[in-house]
Amino acid sequence: MGNLKKLFQKAISKPNNLSFEDACSLAECIGFEFKRQKGDHKIFKNPKLKNEIINLQNVSGKAKPYQVKQLLKIIEKYNLT
Predict the structure, then answer these.
(1) pLDDT digits (tens, 9 = 90+) for 14-46
(2) Is the Cβ–Cβ distance between 43 and 61 less than 8 Å?
């Protein structure tokens, strides 16, 4: 649980500079599972949240800022912290 809080705080404070690995770890910490990869897109789904899909891209080791913000919105929407 401590790891989730650290990653969440990091994402909130630096959504424009979050590493791709941290974004993927955050998605997995809140219950999303890696489903597939197409090119540089990693697709995550949460079995409990049927309508939510997270798409993350690795751009020089960083996650795209708009995708980090989408991830944060899902966390807030479903109170996943």
Answers:
(1) 999 999 999 999 999 999 999 999 988 999 999
(2) no
User: 49-53: which pairs have CB atoms within 8 A and are 24 or more residues apart?
Assistant: 49/74, 49/78, 52/78
Angle at 22 between CA 20 and CA 27, to 5 degrees: 95
| Domains: count for the chain | 1
**pTM, 2 dp:** 0.93
Domain that holds residue 13: 2-77
What is the 8-class DSSP label of residue 53?
Answer: E
Separation CA 36–CA 50 (nearest Å): 16
